[in-house]
Structure formats: C-alpha cells, structure tokens
Design a protein that fits this description.
Layout: E1 13-16, H1 26-35, E2 41-46, H2 58-67, E3 72-77, H3 85-91, E4 95-99, H4 106-115, E5 119-124, E6 142-146, H5 161-175, E7 180-184, H6 189-198, E8 202-205, H7 207-210, H8 215-225
Parallel strand pairs: 1-8, 2-3, 3-4, 4-5, 5-6, 6-7, 7-8
Helix pairs in contact: 2-3, 5-6, 6-8
The chain binds D-xylitol-5-phosphate and zinc ion.
C-alpha cells in the first residue's frame, strides 16, 4: 500500500469533513470540493463507544478511493483502532489517525499502520494534556488536535485550542521531523486564520463547508483566510 499524503511541507492544507456532507448527493459534494481545491478528504469513523455516535466505515472509503483522486484522511474515533487498521488500509485510506485515548497500545498501532505503507496520525481530545503526545512524536506523521469534543459536526470552536496548537507546534519543532499539525472542529474562515497563526497546517472543516449555500465558495474562503 502507498500513501498520497506527502511528509509535512510547510503548506496549508484544507480537508473537508464528509460528516456534514449531504449523503443523498455525496458524490456531487465530493466533486464540488475537489474542483474547488480541497487538498484531502476527511472521513470520520465512530464506533458508538469512544464517542456517542456512529458514522462511516471501510465501504465508504472503498467507494471514495474509486471515485476521487483526493487523499483520504481517515479519523478513527474508536476504542479499538487495531481491529480496523487492515480494513481501512485495504479500502484505500492514505492516512489513519488514531486517538491517544483509545484502549489499544497506540505505539504498537502506529507501527502496524506504518508497516502497511500508509501515513499515521495521533489525535488528542480537548481535555488531554498536550505533553502526553511526546512519547509518540517520533513515530507519527501528524498530530490532530480536536478543537471540539469529538462525536458530532457543527459544534462551536473551543477558545483554548489555539494555545494548545502553539504548544504542540513547539514540541513538533523540537523533533526536527516533518509532522503535520491538523485541527478538527468548529473551523470556519475566522477560526482558520487563528489556528494557522498558532501553527496549524491542516484544517478540517465540515459544517462551514457543507452547510454553506455554496460549498465551493466556503472552501475558498477558508483557503484564503489561512
Ligand atoms: C467531530 C469530527 C469532525 C467534524 C468537524 O468529531 O471529528 O471531523 O466533522 O465538523 P465541524 O467542522 O462541523 O466542526
Ligand atoms: Zn474528524
């Protein structure tokens, strides 16, 4: 397996989250954001245990892989990510992000994902100490900072997020490794600017893009703001 996601390179990327797309016309929504300049597609996976909601599985990733050339950024909000490494990798994920708060041995999970040839990310919830990512920084391609409590789209951006991003950016700089810093939750043109100034380089946005009258315009506004 290979990954379409490059090592972190200093550019700002925007990843629309399909959680807020219109499932009745998912293909059209994907094409719209692809044409408008989306960099990756963010796919939220929820197991009803790690978060109080259910969402997408490998079948959606397989279909996306066939129908779009955008890199697929899969965010696993599940208690046992180890179980899902193979199904999502085979389905075509380019990046699998697991939560530091998951029940499995996260370092081991990261190694297993890398062994399959794709990129890995580690995510932390808003109430997890930022320093707890230090032990995994050497093994990860991306840190995903949640700027809302995971589980649902359309929530308000948490004001403490930029400071957490600043601290994580410092930790990443110290490693001298290319590690993406992704932010997820409540991102719109205004918060995009704030988090980029704080050091983020991948912006996930669901509601601000797909609930807008014109998703292409909303995406471009986020890109311009960042
Ligand atoms: C929330 C998900 C997010 C969600 C973000 O648990 O991880 O990816 O789709 O949605 P917005 O941009 O609407 O906050
Ligand atoms: Zn997400």
């Amino acid at each position: 397996m290979t990954s379409k996601i490059p090592p972190a390179n200093g550019k700002i990327y925007v990843a629309p989250s399909l959680l807020s797309a219109d499932l009745w016309q998912l293909g059209q929504d994907v094409q719209r954001v692809e044409l408008a300049g989306a960099d990756w597609l963010h796919v939220d996976v929820m197991d009803g245990h790690f978060v109080p909601n259910l969402s997408f599985g490998p079948a959606l990733v397989r279909s996306l892989k066939k129908n779009t050339s955008l890199p697929l950024d899969v965010h696993l909000m599940v208690e046992h990510p180890a179980r899902f490494i193979e199904p999502f990798t085979k389905a075509g994920a380019d990046l699998l992000t697991v939560h530091l708060e998951a029940q499995d041995d996260v370092k081991d999970v990261l190694k297993q994902i890398h062994a399959l040839g794709i990129k890995v990310g580690v995510s932390i919830k808003p109430d997890t100490d930022v320093r707890s990512i230090i032990p995994v920084l050497e093994e990860t391609d991306l840190i995903l900072v949640m700027s809302v409590y995971p589980g649902f789209g359309g929530q308000e951006f948490l004001p403490e997020a930029p400071e957490r991003i600043r601290q994580i950016r410092q930790l990443i700089t110290k490693t001298n490794r290319p590690v993406w810093l992704e932010v997820d939750g409540g991102i719109n043109a205004q918060t995009a600017r704030e988090v980029v100034q704080a050091g983020a380089d991948v912006l996930v946005a669901g509601n601000a893009i797909f609930s807008a009258k014109d998703p292409a315009v909303a995406l471009k506004q986020i890109k311009q703001a960042s």
